[in-house]
Amino acid sequence: MSWFRTRPVTRDVWLVAEPGHVNSWLVAGRDRAVLVDSGLGIAPVRPVVAALTERPVDVVHTHAHLDHVGGDAEFDRVAIHPAGVAELRAGADPAERRRYLAHARRLLAAAEAYRALDRDFFHLLSGDSDPRPLPPDVDTTWDPCPGPEPDLLHDGDVVDLGGRTLRVLHTPGHTPDSVCFLDEHAGLLFAGDTVNTGPIYAQAPESDLTAFAASTARLAELADDVHLVLMSHFGRGVAEGRYLREVADAFATLRAGEAVVRPARDCDDDPVREAVFDACSIYVAADG
Fold first, then answer.
1. What CATH code is carried by the domain that includes residue 164?
2. Which of 39, 63, 85, 212, CA to CA, is 20 to 30 A from 71?
C-alpha cells in the first residue's frame, strides 16, 4: 500500500494525502504548479507529484509546522510567510518527531477497532482517511532536512501559475505565519490549519485565539464566493464554502464565553480544553 493517496478534486487540482496525517494540495496552471505544503517527509513526495503533472512544481507553505514542511528538500523553490522563516530554517527537532510518531502509533492502535465499527455501522472511512501503517524503519529514516532558502509570501501577494492565480491571505491564529491561498476564479480556498473539520488547534504557545477569531471572520466574508474549502487534516478534507461561516461562528461563540467546553488531550497527549460545536471543535490551552 502506498504511503500517499492521490486523486483529482477539480480541474488541475489534486489531493496528495498522507491518510490519517496530513493533506497537501497540488495546483497546476498553464505554466507551472505549486504544492501547497510538502507533508511529513516520511516518504518522498516529489515522485508522487511528478506522476500527476509534467509542469515544474514549487512549494508554497500554509505554515512551518513539522507535518507541512517535511518534503521541502526535494524541491528547488519553497515560499512561506516571513514569520515562519526561522522555524523553517531550523527544522524539526528529534523530540518533536518522537512525539509525532507516538501519536501516529496511538492512532494506528485505535484504527483496527474503528475500521470494524465503520464497516458495520458508519461507512465514513475512505482511501483519503484510512491511515497507512508506518514504515518499519521510520524511527531511524524519518529525518527531513530543511529545504532551500525560502521566498517570502505576504498578505495580498499573488502566486501566478499561468492562467491561474492564488492570492495569499495572512490568517494568523494557529501560528503567526499561517496563510491561506485563494483561487478566486475557481472559488477554491486552500485553508491550511486555519480551518479544519475539527479539532482546530488553538492551544499551542504560538497560537493566538484573538487573532484566530479575526482570521476566521475574515474568511467567512468570502463564503459566498468559495465553492470548496480544501483543508489539511482529518477525514473530511473538503467542505463547502458555507463551512467558513460555521467555523467563524464557533470562534465568536468561544470568544464570547458561551461555548460548551470539556477536557481533552491533543496529538502530543497534552491536556487541553475542547470547545465543542456541531460542525467542529476548537482546542485551547488547559490553563487558558
1. 3.60.15.10
2. 212
**Would you give the distance in Å from CA 117 to the centre of its chain?**
27
Q: How many domains does the chain have?
A: 1
> pLDDT tens, 20-63?
999 999 999 999 999 999 999 999 999 999 999 999 999 999 99
Strands (E), the chain: 5-10, 13-18, 22-28, 33-36, 57-60, 78-80, 151-152, 158-160, 165-170, 179-183, 188-192, 200-201, 228-231, 238-240, 260-265, 271-276, 281-285
Helix (H, G, I), strand (E, B) or coil at 236: coil
Domain of 212, in residue numbers: 5-90+143-285
Check: CB of residue 257 under 8 Å from CB of residue 275: no
Sheet arrangement for strand 260-265: 200-201, 281-285, 271-276, 260-265
C-alpha cell at 82: 516571513
Dihedral sign for Cα 208, 284, 179, 47, please. Answer: positive
Task: For residue range 204-263, list pLDDT tens digits in order.
Answer: 999 999 999 999 999 999 999 999 999 999 988 999 999 999 999 999 999 999 999 999
Residue 229 resides in a domain:
yes
Q: Is residue 260 part of a domain?
A: yes
Sheet with 57-60, strands from edge to edge, namely 5-10, 13-18, 22-28, 33-36, 57-60, 78-80, 151-152
Among the listed residues 223, 190, 171, the one whose alpha carbon sits nearest the alpha carbon of residue 34: 190
Rounded CA gap, 201 and 194, in Å?
8
CA distance 266 to 244: 23
Q: What is the DSSP letter of 145?
A: P
Q: Domain for residue 164, yes or no? A: yes
Whether 243 is covered by a domain: the verdict is yes
Q: Is this prediction's pTM over 0.70?
A: yes
